[in-house]
Specification:
The chain is an alpha/beta fold. 34% of the residues lie in helices and 20% in strands. It has 15 helices and 21 strands. It has helices spanning 23-34, 80-86, 117-127, 132-150, 160-169, 171-180, 185-192, 196-210, 219-233, 242-254, 297-300, 318-326, 405-423, 442-449, 493-511; strands at 16-19, 39-42, 54-57, 60-63, 94-96, 99-105, 109-114, 235-237, 258-260, 265-271, 274-280, 285-287, 291-293, 327-329, 332-341, 352-355, 369-372, 386-395, 434-440, 458-460, 480-482. The strands form 6 sheets. A 7-stranded mixed sheet has the order 7-6-16-17-18-15-19. The protein has a 5-stranded parallel sheet with strand order 9-2-1-13-21, with helices on one face. Helix 4 (132-150) crosses helix 9 and helix 7 runs antiparallel to helix 8. The longest helix has 19 residues, at 132-150.
Length: 520
């Protein structure tokens, strides 16, 4: 492999410096290191992974964020986590989840999304027999999108040379994908399906990972999620989700890259509108040829609602101001991590659940409840005789700001008790079985994850044409790149892994270290 040598005399003058060790940032860093670049990752916290990290309490290993993981398949090109780890000589043992998600919805609508696609479609048709044709057509189109994605190596679509090579290898897949770029799910679903309740189900199918209804969810993203859950499937990594970040760090370090913890970046250093390095909270300055921000765009650029970004307001490009007009931060979450007695969970219970009591509550404060019990798949993350129940519900920062310490603690207790009561609709007696409880709020997510308003990520503030308005990795500031859920293609672990591959390819092209041939 072509190893790129750093020619500078200054040992701190890195080829690439990554701010933040979320999965997008770690994939970028490890991919560049695998190509021979000299890479440094700066992480403000004490462990890697961000919202994809894990923490330990009294023998329990709790996932910070969601436990429903895409990207661990073995075939094709959409298994991005498998590929990212393999490229740095790492591998995760995983446990297959037989059901992606069990929905508990209004009017007694209970649907479990089976790993077997034909079983899922059969179950859905049994509930909506009059929509059999529309169901097959809609989800069949999702497969068309997925097959286009799976036919090509997913790298930067900013690089014309790469696009030309991909088009030469898979012209029909490229043309097929281009067709769906400006399209949202709602436009497609309503064309083939008329039953209002079934359309609401497709809304919640989108909302469970995009926090948006079908009308605002890009068809490209839905094609990936609605099909990959049956193709590669949902697979839980042994040891908890945080093991993914740890293994990417291991791979990075084996290849000569470095990561520094407790290193909070406060400013990106600019010279003549070019990024040349960063400054830490300690005052230390570190130079680099390329700076990659894995922070949200609100944390990266000042202006709008973000008063103190890494880039000063006067240096924030107009394109970033326009982005703020198109996208708003999604709500954060109220989350509870519970250690419970095993006997409270009936045999045969699914790992992942979504609870919604009224359709009109879907996008309201604490309206939808997500429940994960990953220890049902992996007993290594719990003490003997125990299980984990991790639940979260969308909650706005506005609900938690301005509270004095006493009021804040009271609200945490009151809201977490309400959440536990909702979970008891599927796990009766849960409250009395709890041996350990951790409660996180939007303020927790802002403090520990460094995310603007604790947000899950950007959502359109107006109806937009699919993925077309989403920015890529390059910014209007030379040498400054963004990666993560504020970039194409958006939220989700597999999506931010894609942005990491894309960002590393873009910078690799700039450094002249990308291999000529496409990945197999």
């Amino acid at each position: 492999m072509n190893r790129h040598k750093n020619t500078g005399d200054d040992s701190t003058h890195w080829d690439a410096l990554v701010i933040g060790s979320g999965i997008g940032g770690l994939v970028t860093a490890s991919q560049l290191a695998a190509k021979g670049a000299k890479v440094l990752v700066l992480e403000r916290y004490t462990i890697p992974g961000g919202s994809s990290g894990s923490f330990h309490r009294k023998g329990f290993t709790f996932d910070v964020g969601a436990s429903m993981i895409f990207g661990f398949g073995e075939n094709g090109h959409t298994n991005l986590l498998t590929r990212a780890l393999a490229d740095v000589g790492e591998h995760c043992k995983t446990f297959p989840d037989p059901v992606q998600l069990a929905y508990h919805l209004p009017n007694g609508l209970e649907i479990a999304v089976d790993r077997n696609y034909h079983q899922f479609i059969s179950d859905l048709i049994n509930r909506f027999p009059h929509e059999a044709s529309g169901i097959k057509k809609f989800y069949g189109l999702c497969w068309q999108v997925f097959n286009c994605l799976d036919a090509m190596p997913l790298l930067s679509i900013e690089d014309p040379a790469y696009l030309a090579k991909v088009f030469f290898r898979a012209p029909f897949a490229c043309l097929g994908l281009a067709r769906w770029l400006p399209t949202n799910v709602g436009d497609v679903a309503s064309k083939y399906i008329k039953d209002p309740e079934l359309l609401r189900f497709i809304d919640i199918e989108c909302f469970c990972w995009s926090v948006m209804p079908a009308s605002h969810t890009p068809m490209i993203n839905a094609g990936m999620v609605f099909s990959d859950r049956h193709a590669g499937g949902i697979n839980y990594p042994e040891g908890g989700v945080g093991i993914i970040a740890k293994k990417l760090v291991n791979g990075l370090e084996k290849l000569g890259g470095e990561i520094r913890y407790k290193s909070r970046v406060t400013r990106v250093l600019l010279e003549r509108n070019s990024a040349v390095g960063v400054q830490l909270a300690t005052g230390e300055k570190i130079k680099a040829k390329n700076v990659i921000s894995n922070a949200t765009r609100w944390n990266t650029f000042s202006g709008g609602g973000s008063k103190e970004g890494l880039i000063n307001k006067e240096d924030t490009p107009t394109s970033e101001i326009k982005w703020r007009q198109r996208y708003s931060p999604s709500p954060s979450f109220l989350s509870i991590h519970l250690g419970v007695d095993s006997n409270i969970i009936p045999e045969g219970t699914h790992c992942h659940h979504l609870i919604l009591d009224k359709w009109e509550h879907m996008d309201k404060e604490q309206g939808v409840v997500f429940v994960s019990m990953p220890s049902l798949l992996d007993q290594s993350i719990v003490p003997e005789g125990k299980q984990i129940v991790h639940a979260f519900t969308p909650s706005s920062m506005n609900e938690w700001e301005g509270l004095n310490p006493k009021s804040y603690l009271e609200k945490k207790e009151k809201d977490s008790d309400k959440l536990i009561k909702q979970i008891e609709t599927i796990l009766p007696g849960l409250k009395d079985s709890i041996s350990h409880k951790e409660v996180g709020t939007p303020r927790s997510h802002r403090r520990f994850l460094g995310r603007y308003q604790g947000s899950y990520g950007p959502i359109p503030s107006q109806r937009l044409p699919g993925l077309l308005p989403m920015p890529f990795n390059s910014t209007a500031i030379k040498g400054l790149f963004c990666v993560g859920d504020s970039c194409f293609p958006g939220q989700g672990l597999n999506a931010v892994a894609f942005s990491g591959f894309a960002c590393a390819h873009k910078i690799g092209a700039k450094l002249g270290i990308n291999p000529w041939s496409l990945p197999h």
